[in-house]
Each structure stands twice: as C-alpha cells, then as structure tokens.
Design a protein that fits this description.
Structural class: alpha/beta
Strand order of the largest sheet: 3-2-1-4-5-6-7
Number of helices: 12
CATH class of the largest domain: Alpha Beta
Helix content: 25-40%
Radius of gyration: 21 Å
Distance between the termini: 20 Å
Number of strands: 15
Number of domains: 2
CATH architecture of the largest domain: 3-Layer(aba) Sandwich
C-alpha cells in the first residue's frame, strides 16, 4: 500500500467545514487516495465527517478577542501532532508559524489567497476604523516576508495576480466556483404574483456586502406594491453591525434572520437558496471587490436561482446572457421591472467551465508543483 502524503489545510477564521477548504479543495484531494487530508480551522456548528479527512477544530473565538492571540500557539501544536509534508494556508495570520514549521521540519507551503486581504481589511468594515490600516499593512508585510518560503500560490480571483505584488513564481488560478448540484433544478417561472416574493440575502452579514441596502429594498418594494419577504442567512463578524441589523428589523415582520451571532452551515444556506424566488446581489463596490466574481453568483448560476442585482455591478451582463435575473436600482426600485410572467434560465445552458469540477485538475497540478 502506497504511503499517503500528509496534507494540512489550515485557516484561522474559517470553520473546518468551510466550502472551499473542505468541500472543494479537501474533498477533491481526498478523492485521489494519494493524500492524508487534515483540516485545521474554526469549530463548525454541526459535527462534520468524511471517510478520508481528519477534522481538527481548534479555534472558537470572536474576531476581536484575546483568545485570538493564542491561536498561532494552538496551530503550532497541531502541526507538531500531524507533521504534514504539505501545508495549504488559507489565512495570512498563520503564515509565519507555517514558515517556521517548514524551516525546522521541511515540507512545502501552498498559500491559498482567497482575498486581497490588505484591501479587504481596509474596505470591508470588519474591524474598527482605527485598526484597519495598521492591520492591513501588517498583514501585507507578513505576506511579503513569507513569499520566498511559499512553494506555490493559489488565487481565488484572477485580479489578485495584478493586485497582490508579492505573488511571484508558481501560481494557479483556482476560482471559487460552485460544485455541480446532485440534482438539476428546473428553470423557475413566476406566472404571476400570487404570494409574496421570497428574497434571500446569504453569506457574510456586513455593510460592505449590502445588508442594509437589502433591508431597505424589501421595505421599498412592499411600499410600491411588490409584496415581498426577506430571509437573511449568514454570520455577522461585527457586534455593532449585528446590533444595527436587529434595530432595523424591529416592526418588520416581513424579514427573518437565520444565524447572525453564529456561523451557519453551508448546506443550510444552499437549502434556503433553492427555495427562494430571488437571491439579492447587493455588494457595495470598492477596491477590494470590484474585480472579483462573488461565490454567491457562482452558486446562483449553478442552482439556477434568479438574481436581483444592483444595476451598477460589473457582473450584470450575466443576467441577460443567461436570463439569470433582473438588474435593479436598489435605491429607487421600479415595480415595472417585475413584468409577469417572469421566466429565467431559458436562454442558454450554464457551461461546464462555470462549475468547480473544471478546477479540479488545476488543483491537482498545483499540489504536484507545490510538493
């Protein structure tokens, strides 16, 4: 029996059942039967199992807490326990510890750049304003310091190749496309409005992702004769943002919140996605997201979920190309946009290149280069 290469996938803030770390990269590598996969990350809400993956949840703290300072020590202990040959790092906070481990014990490091972390810290609002720039430049300094120790870079967005100057050498673009659904969803048609339109905001709950724009939108639609209800599902990393969300939801029985204070399992988000009439694509464009292709859009296209998208977004052309939804002015939504019957995903099929399966071979090649 061939010995399997020990691989660690590690993140400081992602749960061990994170869609990219577990469902896409981890599960794809496990399928080859060449790697012993270990995932180190945040504690998941539900217990997660996989026959060929070991889950090592060791983090459980809020983003701003003293416990976070001890996280690298906990991570170091797990590395000593597993003794991996390859470390796939999914967050910059543990790059230095990973490089120290490589220096002492050897092996390879693959850095999965899921975000332009410096820009994201500055623009996302996930940290209080006084901490944003010092933290952002500190993170970028770590990335620059560690770049020579990294054997291979994986980037989730093509734009990071030009935005992140520290990315040099072996690089693979591994976009965050959705896994093909087990069962194909029939293209939806809304013949007429016989019930409130079901709208969905999913993912990270943050001002930069447009959470307050969505709450305002559903109120405006109801005021203008488009009977609508909104489901918000996801995790809110900032207490002050969540407090404002709760305040905004007072006396709004047409809005419900799932999660908020806790991470919501990805499977539960996908369940909500498949029973909604429209997914809301509401990002507030800034230098950290303008060149990206949001995971939320990949998932809507894969599951044939119609989208209501801000009409200034750079992805709005997809709505016409695939009859995938409606562009909308969230500030001043016009009821005339909703001309029933509404039929979607009838223009042309979503191509295979839009699904995660098209990225698998690139992943395997990246790992071979990274070892």
């Amino acid at each position: 029996m061939l010995k399997k290469h020990k691989v660690v996938l590690a993140s400081l803030l992602k749960p061990v059942d994170d869609p990219r770390m577990f469902e896409k990269i981890g599960a794809s590598l496990a399928e080859t039967n060449k790697y012993a996969i270990n995932i180190i990350g945040f504690s998941a809400k539900n217990k997660v199992t996989h026959p060929n993956i070991t889950f090592l949840p060791i983090f459980n703290f809020r983003r701003l807490s003293l416990q976070r300072l001890l996280a690298p020590v906990l991570y170091w202990k797990k590395l000593l326990q597993v003794k991996p040959e390859v470390i796939i790092v999914n967050s910059p906070e543990i790059l230095l510890v990973s490089c120290l481990f490589k220096t002492i014990f050897g092996g390879s490091i693959i850095y999965d750049v899921q975000e332009n972390y410096m820009q994201n810290i500055i623009w996302s609002g996930s940290l209080p304003a006084p901490l944003r720039h010092p933290t952002a430049f500190g993170v970028r300094a770590v990335e620059i310091l560690c770049k020579r120790m990294i054997n291979h870079f994986i980037v989730a967005e093509k734009c990071y190749l030009t935005e992140c100057s520290f990315i040099k050498g072996n690089v693979s673009v591994l976009e965050n496309k959705a896994i093909s659904p087990a069962k194909e969803r029939n293209p939806p048609t809304i013949q007429k409005q016989t019930h409130p339109l079901k709208l969905l905001y999913s993912g990270t709950i943050a001002e930069s992702y447009g959470i307050f724009d969505c709450i305002d939108l559903v109120e405006k639609l109801n005021d203008r004769g488009i009977d609508s209800v909104l489901t918000i599902i996801g995790y809110c990393p900032r207490k002050d943002t969540l407090k404002e969300v709760y305040q905004r939801l007072r006396n709004k029985p047409f809005v419900r919140l799932i999660g908020g204070e806790s991470i919501v399992p990805h499977a539960q988000i996908l369940d909500e996605l498949q029973i909604t009439d429209f997914a809301l694509i509401s990002y507030r464009l800034n230098p950290s997201n303008a060149g990206c292709f949001p995971t939320r859009i990949w998932e809507c296209l894969a599951y044939k979920v119609p989208m209501l998208m801000k009409n200034e977004h750079p992805w709005v052309h997809l709505l016409d190309e695939f009859s995938a939804g409606l562009p909308l002015d969230f500030e001043n939504p016009s009821p005339e946009c909703f001309q029933f019957p509404l039929s979607f995903y009838h223009r042309k099929p979503i191509p295979p290149s839009f699904f995660w399966e098209s990225e698998k071979q690139k992943l395997l090649e990246a790992l071979e280069k990274g070892i």
